[in-house]
Write a structure and sequence with these properties.
The complex is a heterotrimer of chains A (204), B (169) and C (413). Helices cover 40% and strands 7% of the residues of chain A. Chain A is α/β, with parallel strands linked by helices and 204 residues long. Chain A folds into two domains: 14-44, no CATH class; 60-191, Rossmann fold. Chain A contains eight helices and four strands. With 169 residues, chain B is α/β, with parallel strands linked by helices. Chain B is built from four helices and seven strands. In chain B, the strands form two sheets. A five-stranded mixed beta sheet of chain B has the order 1-2-5-4-3. Chain B starts with a helix and ends in a 5-residue tail after the last helix. Chain C has two domains: 29-65 and 376-413, no CATH class; 70-375, Orthogonal Bundle (Cytochrome-c3 Hydrogenase, chain B), CATH 1.10.645. Helix content of chain C is 48%, strand content 12%. In chain C, β2 (46-52) and β3 form a beta hairpin. The longest helix of chain C is centred in the first third of the chain and has 30 residues, at 115-144. Classes of the chains: A alpha/beta (204), B alpha/beta (169), C alpha+beta (413). The interface between B and C is large, with 39 and 41 residues.
Amino acid sequence: MEIKREALPQEMDFRSRQLMSRDMLRGTLEDEDLERFAEQAVMTTTLDRAVAWAQGNSIYPMTFGLACCAIEMMSIVAARVDIARFGFEAFRASPRQADLLILSGRVSTKMAPVIRRIYDQMLEPKFAISMGACCSSTGVFNNYALVPSDKFMPIDVHVPGCPPRPEALAHGILKLRDKIQHHDREGWRERYDAVGTEEVIPGA
Amino acid sequence: MPDAAGLEVIAEELRGADPSAVLGTTFDRGRAEIQIDPSKNIEVIEQLRERGFNFLASLHGVDYYPQEPRLGVVYELLDMTEVDRISLKARVSIEDPRIASVTSIWPGSDFPERECFDMFGVVFEGHPDLRRILMPEDFEGFPQRRDFPIGGEPILFTYNETDHYGKDR
Amino acid sequence: MSALGDYRKREESISYSVESAGMGETHELLSLNIGPHHPATHGVLRLIATLEGEVVRDIKPIIGYVHTGIEKTAEQKSYWKAIPVVERMDYLSYYFNAMAYCGAVETLLGLQIPPRAQYLRVIHLELNRIMSHLVWLGTSALDLGAMSMFWYCFRERETILDLFEMSSGQRMHTRYIQIGGVFEDIPPGFAAKLQKFVDGMPARADQYADLLEKNQILLSRLRDSCILDEQTLLGLNVTGPLLRAAGNPWDLRKAAPYSSYDHFDFKIPVGSVGDNYDRYRVRHAELYESTKIIDQALKGLPEGPTIADDRKVVLPPRHELATSMEALIHHFKLVTEGFRVPEGEAYYPIESPRGELGCFVRSDGSAKPARVHMRDPSFVNLQSTAPMVKDSYIADLIATLAMVDPVLGGVDR
């Protein structure tokens, strides 16, 4: 019985990549297939990936407690659910020094421009977590006074709950960390025109 | 709370001083209430203060839509030595919602009167700084009136996001 | 060592003249905006401070940054469904918000609450009071620089939240207090865990006192700073620990007892001077008193139903829905339309951790309340910060804000 070997197609769909990895593991990958495999592997372990790993492990959240969710956010700094084990305990008060804005609590129409201004004052790369039902949608209160945070700023992760358990918020933060480290965030900010919004004082 | 008889005694005293001040009394489920003429609220409050009700527990507005006069200002007074509560209600109309401010008697009624102005539109004459307190300064309308709509926004999901905003506008 | 010697010589060689500043000299007044986002405020409070040098001459609080329209939203919901909305007002004392609202509606309905429900309400209210004081203590110490208090206070807070989760399934905003009583009876194991907590709490409170009392910086920041006398406080309609720190023993749990508070033996801590240190001590002493109340309530917990049995108002127990047609119809009507309350108005005041929390409910005969107003203590107490901090330093302003304990959810509603 003759086993026919075919050259793998140039465009790498999932099945082709799977077969390639299988062959690599068996030791039967040869010549140009092996070269292409090596190219790919090297491309994904570039400096970008290392930088993203470092960024994901050293997020500085900003102290931004608005309402009830702020108390549960304080709980994740406390001892039971301790985000210091991930390296995120350095809460910074100044937006210029922080890179994660955890919006915890209901956003009223009076507060929305303030939050937008603070988000603009943060420097790239920056992320935002909308914690709780009130800022993701308006939660319990769909009325004249509240604004869902999606309407005025780009949010990376929404954490549901009213208020979310500290474990839920920690899960959300870890999901954000995965997002940062594996480049899942690429492209969505561009699609939504959510880049280039920094507030930089000219001449300062 | 003063019982029904005690309430009537107080009302008689108030009527004795000024017959047109008291418009009526209600004693319902343990709550004693005197409806007063809004233009005489300071005098009535001063009299009650002499009687011992010298702590203002709460000052708030109510909208009695569709009954006229629509807006009511309720003063909950407390007598700390006897542990007695009494309520005063002054009803003003929508067209002319003015009432005298009690900030000269209790400086702590500053914020509650501003809130009543912000939410219902009741103008307190003599208030040092009558501005909006809870809503943004340039908000139009008085939110807690019964004919003000509840408002609210449609929530953004992925299926309806391009209805409101998105790259392909 | 010679570097140190040089430094000392340089220090001593500096000559300076002391200028007396203050009254009589005109200095420039600076308006400084503090907030709404600031690490040392308890929520989104914005202050415009008018400063002369570092002395505060006036502050103007600007609030409204978490205004949620709770009172208007509660008018859109039926009486039962408004409880979760009203609970989220003063977000550290959610049982108290629900208690005030349910108390007002029960007054309007004329409902009698069974004794077991009253005792369970007292237990949860006092647990919530302890929890609120713990959060206050932790965050205030954080503001004042004694940072390790935060972790110790939140350790106790986690135990209390575990207890809340056992009895109602939620850590915060639990909807445990319902119209007519409480949601459900306490599960087995709750009493044992609560007893263990109560036995250990006084020792923990002693630990907090030990941590802070020897901290000279904290003591000198708090002692004799921002004193306000009792008459001014009464004119400002202030109640709660602020008034008690100034010497007036006004506490609604003793003066006008509600929900079986008169069955328990506890004291009211009262201060004498009215400075920040007294405010801190009053709240700290209330931790012990609340623990005593919970202990007595747990030991004397009567048997019986945990909610009133008026089927027109209270949901029937679930097992009856399978057998009784009437129960099914009641359940349907209560969940879809809700019960109707006879016309009238009621004001129900209770003693929350910050002062007198009152709920005014007006009903017009329909299934939805026509007006719900929460008289929040922080809203009124915030007016007292301006006279308190006049002519003291900015650091005293931060300490006073911490000791006044405003919760901006209640202030803005």
